């Protein structure tokens, strides 16, 4: 009987909840999300616009903030409860990753801000506004009360955020942070011939991955590879490709199926240049508490994606902000 | 700011892993699972046949056991770790639901057996055989090493088990057991006009539900409403309907979309009469640690399923074993 | 060798091109088609609004005309060429079904108007405006030049008209007209126990059916059972069901698969009450020039649709205009 | 009013019905079609195996013939009737393309054999065996009597043959043959910078194309680019990609959407090296009797397929038989 030695990991971080994207053309970025991705605008505050995906139980999913250059701002994570939040903050402070408490912002309460070793900005919180509780009085209600907003039936019909893929100068360090500070579990990774991982996929719950780090070949820190949003069916991605084609959005690669994690994908650039993935995992979950991480070699990667598509060059070179 | 009072629930039970079905025509039931549902037979032991769904990381997904009447036998749950297993057993014993340890069986190690208040049989364990580790030497390996078995490309192509829906004489008691003894979280429920729930959907992780209790109108105990299996896309369910049509399998209702939980579904009876659901949840997850359970009234239920299909009478009357 | 005796039928009528719907709430009907079905408004003339489906090579697909009651107005058919038009008119006149020439209207030229034995109004023509030739200068062009309009990515994304299903007091007479006067070929039919057909499906080309007659149980003449529109994939119909659910459109029945013709379907009522079908035939075609019509008995019909859905009562009783 | 000058074309050739493929590994080719493509073997005769796709109303769809090298043998076309057959043969003989009558073979009667200018072998016939009439007594019958065989629910579940894409040394000559001798209508084409077409897509009925010629860059004659088979949904193609991946079949390119004709496609090589396409056209048809052919320039082609996939090199170089 093969007995695993792992399991029993802490589950203090419940899920990825929202992400902030910087844009030098914020209205174009907002239009991309609202018209083509089917988000709704739920608030404006200063240079920022808050956008909501129709099945997000919280107040916002994407915050678009005007900036001189594209890139990723804050990533919000929701704690598994008030005690989990305290435990996690204590752990971060004890291990030298401590940050600061802020009052929160549109839709979310008191938030603990910190950075991963690569400099990406995170906010961890418990108190949150439920979309249904605060928005249903003034905004359209869905026909089925077990979803936040009416199904938009428009463009890509994005249901929810799925994951963030960060570029990091030191992938092992960034991955260790996800594991040791946030309680993430490694599900798959790319391991270079020298044995060093160049990309690591971590999950928090049953989804196959939530937070990913990919080696930044430029050696820069704090950059974004892509933010991914989930749609219900692979057919939604095929249809979205036609929507993007008509709208003149740059389609980088796909639709196709990743060998790693088997996700069906499409990559486009929103108007500011941030790479956006549409993804569908089918019914695939990683349920094992002691999941054995799957490692992929450079040789295996050379075979291309699941059905043979070669990885496009820009996938290795394009990140935001651009490196001068 | 709406602050939730819940969260921080124990996460000792990781996931539903397998189920035992009784059949008075076991070879026909096995043929249904192997030929039409695309399971593979992985072991035989006495009157039982062990069947594996292609993306189950463990050794088996369904155990078919010859018996005088159809129905559900044991439900296996995997603990979140060795400490979680101990904690949970201690909790069960302390709260009067204690059972017994057994050595385990094909594919799984030492197992703690207990019953819910309605008499359904459960087994909780940690040690398990990984399909990849024990079967790849003698059985076909998949093209992609992040799945257990080759994609079958046959019949309904079931990826994994999804949930069990039990019939229970006392639904509130059965639900309380899932919450208090197993750490489940109520996501949706049907509440009768007298305020008493007649069906409760509980989840353990991010999936929208794993264990469900529905009122047994006959007042019997320990019966089964249905076992559900997940496919990757709604299209898989439409195709499966043609497969069942050709095979002469009784299609009870569907394909359609549930209002409750929004699952796309198809219900059939396997040859022994146990109701089997094929389901696809799209990208829907319940991520909130403090999810507000959605309650449906009899009046709302009267509208039928999401797109108006009236619930078929047998859905309320058929369970296994039949009541004499 | 089984040698067919048929074949060599005239092919003078090329295809169904457009239909006129009467509505007592014409703006609501137009809104249904534009917002939910993704048609575009291309012209207004008097009480009529002309609507275009994105892959219709001609100028319009549906003409909505204000009227005191719902129902079907004219059905337009395009001839296979100028000689075919002349031949067909000559044939109609010779066989006692002659009508009158009119100058045509928005988008189509000189048109020969006539009626089928049940009183339905038809227009046969050759000269037509190509959408691309007349509309691309002032309206959005598609990204791919082999379609008329940009893919809308909105609501049901209807590609084209598919078929018209008329109610007729005398189905055999109406069917004989399609065969003898229009050159249609019977592909499937429902035959009552007395041997008389109560529904007949005729096609003109390779599509499995274009013009259908169903027995009008009220004995009325000239009424409509439904007009059907084609979408690309079955998934489009599932998504459209959510769109209609959110919009409060009455979903009569479906999605499901017809046993007859195997079409995947969804039936809704547009705001005036005219029944609208969304359909997808997959890759099914009837290519045989000597196709043996498939006949369905009442007993076979009693089994329900392909996957067992019982035919809903209103499907047998609802037609437009309503019978007082 | 834009009046077309065309239309009224002869419709003597009803449809593409079957194709013969040469294979130096005929049993492997048969296994590919039976196990992975879901054809059934219906006859053997000498070195040939006759295979049937489940919705083909005739006796066979593909004839696999053992040969020293891969490539295409005969293409069978069914006439629109006995008179159409006579007319067409008379026309072929009068225009210098006359061939010979043979008695026919498995499933089809007296056949007129001829060649196109590039040397591809054709058989035109009227008398045919209906699968239902001759096979239902001894082989499984479908659940729905409006299809030939039971839905296989296996592998790629091919419904029917869709088109043949020939390589030709002289594309304009080959295209003119399709138009003038067979009554085909040009729907789309690639036109080189010198104004000469390098690929032409012709259809016979309402399908967007049936017979295609692509320039053979080697200057050889009589070769094959690919044979295509239709599946019902795009999802079937995605699933088939997984089936081929598991089976070790070479996937050349796709799944993706062609810009030309907008077909969703996947290209694989069967074991002998003949390129096989799986295709789905959605609900797209070319209904206009005077369809304006769509022409694509080299510059437009350089943009890649509809969603940006670059055309893979082997698509321009691989044909069968290989050129020494």
Keywords:
homotetramer, 324 residues, alpha/beta, 2,3-Dihydroxybiphenyl 1,2-Dioxygenase, domain 1, 9-stranded mixed sheet, 8-stranded mixed sheet, 7 helices, 33% strand, globular, disordered N terminus
Distance between the termini of chain A: 55 Å
Helical residue percent band of chain A? 10-25%
**Tally of DSSP helical segments of chain A:** 7
Whole-angstrom Rg of chain A: 19 Å
Q: Name the assembly state.
A: homotetramer
Secondary-structure-derived class of chain A: alpha/beta
State the CATH superfamily name of chain A: 2,3-Dihydroxybiphenyl 1,2-Dioxygenase, domain 1
How many distinct beta strands of chain A? Answer: 17
CATH topology of chain A: 2,3-Dihydroxybiphenyl 1,2-Dioxygenase, domain 1
User: What is the domain total for the residues of chain A?
Assistant: 1
CATH architecture of chain A: Roll
Largest sheet of chain A: 9 strands, mixed
Bulk shape of chain A: globular
Going across the major beta sheet of chain A, what is the strand order? 14-15-16-13-9-12-11-10-17
Low-pLDDT stretches of chain A are 1-5
Main CATH class of chain A: Alpha Beta
Mean pLDDT of chain A, to the nearest integer, reads 96
Order of helices and strands of chain A: EHEEEEHEEEHEHEEEEHEEEEHH
Describe, in plain words, how this protein is organized in 3D.
A nine-stranded mixed beta sheet of chain A has the order 14-15-16-13-9-12-11-10-17. Chain A has an eight-stranded mixed beta sheet with strand order 2-3-4-1-5-8-7-6. The longest helix of chain A is centred in the C-terminal third of the chain and has 14 residues, at 234-247. Chain A has helices spanning 26-36, 82-94, 131-135, 171-180, 234-247, 298-301, 314-317, and strands at 13-23, 40-45, 48-52, 62-66, 71-79, 100-102, 111-115, 121-125, 160-168, 185-191, 197-203, 211-215, 224-230, 250-257, 264-269, 275-280, 294-297. Chain A is α/β, with parallel strands linked by helices and 324 residues long. Mean pLDDT of chain A is 96; it is low at 1-5. Chain A has a single domain (13-317), classed as 2,3-Dihydroxybiphenyl 1,2-Dioxygenase, domain 1 (Roll). The N and C termini of chain A lie far apart (55 Å). The first copy, chain A, has seven helices and 17 strands. Chains B and C meet through helix 5 and strand 14 of B and helix 5 and strand 14 of C. Chains A, B, C, D: This is Catechol 2,3-dioxygenase. Chains A, B, C, D: Keywords: Dioxygenase, Oxidoreductase. Chains A, B, C, D: GO terms for molecular function: dioxygenase activity. Chains A, B, C, D: Residues 15-127, 160-281 form the VOC domain.
């Amino acid at each position: 009987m093969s007995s695993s030695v792992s399991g029993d990991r802490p589950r203090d971080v419940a899920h990825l909840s929202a992400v902030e994207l910087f844009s030098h053309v914020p209205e174009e970025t907002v239009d991309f999300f609202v018209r083509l991705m089917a988000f709704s605008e739920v608030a404006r505050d200063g240079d920022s616009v808050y956008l909501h995906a129709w099945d997000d139980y919280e107040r916002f999913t994407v915050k678009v903030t005007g900036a001189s250059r594209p890139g990723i701002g804050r990533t919000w994570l929701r704690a598994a409860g008030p005690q989990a939040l305290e435990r996690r903050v204590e752990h971060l402070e004890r291990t030298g990753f401590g940050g600061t408490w802020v009052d929160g912002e549109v839709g979310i309460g008191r938030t603990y801000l910190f950075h991963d070793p690569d400099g990406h900005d995170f906010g961890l919180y418990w108190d949150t506004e439920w979309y249904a509780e605060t928005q249903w009085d003034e905004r359209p209600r869905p026909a089925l009360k077990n979803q936040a907003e009416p199904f938009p039936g428009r463009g890509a019909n994005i249901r929810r955020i799925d994951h963030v893929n960060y570029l990091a100068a030191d992938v092992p360090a960034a991955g260790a942070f996800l594991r040791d500070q946030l309680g993430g579990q490694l599900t798959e990774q790319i391991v270079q011939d020298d044995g060093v991982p160049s990309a690591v996929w971590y999950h928090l719950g049953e989804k196959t991955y939530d937070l990913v780090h990919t080696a930044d070949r430029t050696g820069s820190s704090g950059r974004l590879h892509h933010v991914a949003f989930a749609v219900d069916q692979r057919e939604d991605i095929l249809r979205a490709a036609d929507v993007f084609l008509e709208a003149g959005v740059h389609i980088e690669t796909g639709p196709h199926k990743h060998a790693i994690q088997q996700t069906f994908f499409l990559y486009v650039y929103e108007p500011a240049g941030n790479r956006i993935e549409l993804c569908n995992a089918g019914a695939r979950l990683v349920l094992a508490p002691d999941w054995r991480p799957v490692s992929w070699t450079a040789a295996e990667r050379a075979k291309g994606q699941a059905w043979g598509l070669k990885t496009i060059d820009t996938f290795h070179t394009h990140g935001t902000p651009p490196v001068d």
